[in-house]
Request: fold
Amino acid sequence: MINKMRVTEEFMKLVSIDSPSFKERQMADVLKQYLIQLGFEVTEDDAYKHYDGNSGNLYGFLKGDIEGDPILFSAHMDTVEPSTGKRAVKHQDGTITSDGNTVLGADDLAGVAAILEAVRTIKEKGLSHRSIEVLFTIAEEVYIRGSEVFDYNRIKAKEAYVLDLSGPVGTAALKAPTLISFTAEFIGKASHAGFAPEKGIHAISVAAEAITAIKQGRIDEETTVNVGTIEGALPET
Reply:
């Protein structure tokens, strides 16, 4: 029922827009207009203020004609680097790639395009539907920073679909991995190595003891832990 040519062209248009994390302004403006044209009530939050970005999360609500809780569809607006000057290339077999100089941006603009096309099809075919909520977030690629500050009291739906998964069409995940990062700072105490070494506190030694005490690798059936980066610096004088 979908218009394959239209969704393909729209996807190629969207991926041509530069939208690195925290710099999604142009993408947000385009998507806001699309949603308004489809009949959504659209608002943008102030997520950018938390991160010195230039765009907030977009939330849209489309009133349905069937009773029941709304249904939510979500995708993110940002793409990983390198993303400046993205250009989609459609090949003879129908596949779409970047030109080789940047990422394509299918993550997650394929999800965005799919949501837009689904709503357009519903509207064009006059299909009855529950109310629809849409959430397009910023800064997903840098540990879901946009989702982190969104006010979920605005969401009315009890059922949500996040279109951000690879695999065969129709694949769905009920549970997926998440990531929690932590940073620990160890501050030593300087002392003269020749006159009073016993008065010093060696920060690297203390950090090594702490790392040794942390259970790493697979710590239970669902969790892994890893200490990934160690950095050192001389104290400021």
The chain is about 25% helix and 15% strand.
